[in-house]
Structure prediction request, 282 residues.
Amino acid sequence: VRVNRRLCEMTGYSEDELLRLTGREISHPEDVDVINAQRPSLYAGEIDAVRVEKRYLRKDGSVIWVAFTMVVERNAAGEPQYEIAFFDDITARKQAEAALRESEERFRQLAHHDALTSLPNRALFYDRMQHTLALAKRNHWTVGVMLVDLDRFKTVNDTLGHAVGDKLLRQVAERLSKSVRTSDTVARLGGDEFAVVLNNLSAPEDAAVVGQKIVAAFQAPFQVEGHSLLSTLSIGAALYPNDSTDQETLLKNADAAMYRSKEAGRNCFRMFSAAGWPDSRP
Prediction:
């Protein structure tokens, strides 16, 4: 068995140390059997070489990525005699690929989520709502759509500044998200406007139950940079299929109901009038 100087440099071991170690011993634990999976096919002549990308552990414990190629030298009768392995350090390439994936993931996050609250943004909300309504049509579900406005948020910005306002919005997003199921969608449409899709309600009346729960959750003040801020919500809701089966119409109906809650003095919710339920407040 022989090793060259370049392999020693790549792994951090001396030639004598490498000769006393097996490839498995210096392989990353998750990549130990990567080569062995192809070795039988190589010896059987089914493939001309083993070609894999795998990780090895350097002497100092750091990880390197290697493009590994192994061939078998055979005698005149075609019988395997010995293996020849080639190691190409591709760590820099792998790091660049990982950085690119991370950058692309950040871009996707920014493209579909609100930068301040990390909630789905308007575009993702519309996509989620469209998907939910398609499922509702196939499965005969009832779906609730809520539009939510933070009452008198402009006063907070004007008197305490945008930094406090931003922190308040983050807390509002968190409290709103905790008031619904994980299967529901909570989004920030922009400014002090939020939206909720209540997925697969057991009964139409459940939308009122959720509305009461959300309004009640916002009766406790928020603590923001030493300020105790009572920030309530005006909520309007519409139902699929009761109020409409069309996405845009449902949103218009929920918006109309939200403005009725504002006209009623805020800090309450209203169902779209076609639902036939009385106005509700905490």
